[in-house]
Amino acid sequence: MTGRSALVLALAIVVGVAAGIAIAWLTRPEPLTAVDGGADDTHARVGDRRPDFTHAGVNGELWRAEDFDGRPTLVNFWATWCRPCLREMPLLQSLAESHADRLNVVGIAVDDPGAVGDFVDRLGIDYPILIGTSDVRETQRRFGNPDGMLPYSVIVDAGGTIRWRHLGELEKPMLDAALGPLLERPAP
Fold first, then answer.
1. pTM for this structure?
2. Which domain holds residue 99?
């Protein structure tokens, strides 16, 4: 290879890499800059009405967002391959049991239905588990998590307004603080 050919090849590589970086930068999704705000109009924020959705449950039944209206609802997006998601499941089950008459707990899995069904059976999870892939990713985006990171949780009040969002593993003290005021209020 001559010096001129090597220079042309090196220049072509540099231009290709620069073009790739430019395309990646210009087409990147909007980052989730703050869990309690900062999203555009297609992503719900705290204080917004919860988005509608329809997803299949573990047993094939269809669930709609409005099925959970009338009581505060903790919506948790998760997957069987997500370690923090798995660690928080017993806490969610405990909440579902201890507040069964005042709180809806809903898990929405971004996963394979077979894997999810086997998993919730093994763990004894009895709160509603909804399943999907691209449709769940879209719901998650509309609930304020455009990057689809897991686990992601949202608390919706009895009237359907988003009151709290959290990206990351849930812990009992944070949930007690977020849910306390909602569980003390009578339902509308």
1. 0.76
2. 54-184
